[in-house]
Amino acid sequence: MSEQRWLQLVCQTDQQNHAIIENAMESANALSITFQDAKDTPVLEPLPGETPLWDELIITALFDYDTDLSKLTNALETHREEWHVGSVLVETIEDQDWERVWMKDFHPMQFGDNLWIYPSNYDVPEDDSVKILLDPGLAFGTGTHPTTSLCLEWLDQNHPTDKLVIDYGCGSGILALAAAKLGSKNIIATDIDPQALTATYDNMERNNISKDAIQCYLPDDCPQQPADLLLANILCGPLRELFPLFASLTRSGGQLVLSGILSEQKDQILETYSAAFKDFEVKILEDWVRISAIKT
């Protein structure tokens, strides 16, 4: 039995013209269409329901191998100036187990002294370390990004034993999982993306964590009970907007850990949160910042 193959078309354009090119790709029966930054420019602070795009982007479309792409490529060439089309590449893609290809580069990672993340296909050693099994999924958070790493390091150094924890913007649930592994039995995980809640539940099951330990909610449904520890690994804009909520969701004397903040945004967060928090500590990793504090 021969392996399946596909055709892949890759072209560069700008934000203003991506929609018309996307429509042309869909008309050519594209199986999938993805966008990628063409100039290494970060997209920050998306609003709920918003799909932000870069000014210059690369569009990649996947087609059945026997698809005739001549009409599409002719259109891209004809409208090259009008649609601001840069380079166009058509290539054959061989069949692969894409998840396993990705996973071969996903290795065990250590955070702090004793907290580890392992891919689920890895032979996990039998030792006294705290282990989280995690595979890449639909939601943000595998531990590889500095913002997540900073939060995991903090949890390793500050076990939330028997504390009520809120993981606000839970993504894959990685921080909630770590809190559960490190002693919390009452965790609230919330995210604006329903896929994040699904990923969190899946990862709870993978790690044999009781559904009673982590309760998942969309933000509008989230209980308003003040927590002993509030974790929020999101972005500077939302963190500033959410200050009144986070102040109300953190009990007096409770701990706050914020990340997703660029170094140049640190002072904005400190200024905003100083109205209700004290004893700030700042840690920087690769131009990303973690800020921890105590509720007054």
TrEMBL record:
Location within or outside the cell: Cytoplasm
Main location: cytoplasm
Enzymatic reactions: L-lysyl-[protein] + 3 S-adenosyl-L-methionine = N(6),N(6),N(6)-trimethyl-L-lysyl-[protein] + 3 S-adenosyl-L-homocysteine + 3 H(+)
Pfam families, per database record: PrmA
Gene Ontology molecular function: protein-lysine N-methyltransferase activity
SUPFAM superfamilies to which the protein is assigned, alphabetical: S-adenosyl-L-methionine-dependent methyltransferases
Keyword field contains DNA-binding: no
Keyword terms of this UniProt record: Cytoplasm, Methyltransferase, Ribonucleoprotein, Ribosomal protein, S-adenosyl-L-methionine, Transferase
UniProt-annotated binding residues for S-adenosyl-L-methionine: 148, 169, 191, 233
Lipid biosynthesis listed as a keyword: no
BP GO annotations: methylation
Superkingdom: Bacteria
GO cellular component terms attached to this protein's record: cytosol; ribosome
Main EC class the enzyme belongs to: transferase
Enzyme nomenclature, EC number: 2.1.1.-
InterPro entries in UniProt: Ribosomal_L11_MeTrfase_PrmA, Ribosomal_PrmA_MeTrfase, SAM-dependent_MTases_sf
Family listed: Belongs to the methyltransferase superfamily. PrmA family.
Protein role: Methylates ribosomal protein L11.
NCBIfam families: prmA (TIGR00406)
Protein name according to UniProt: Ribosomal protein L11 methyltransferase
Annotated source species: Cocleimonas flava
Gene it is expressed from: prmA
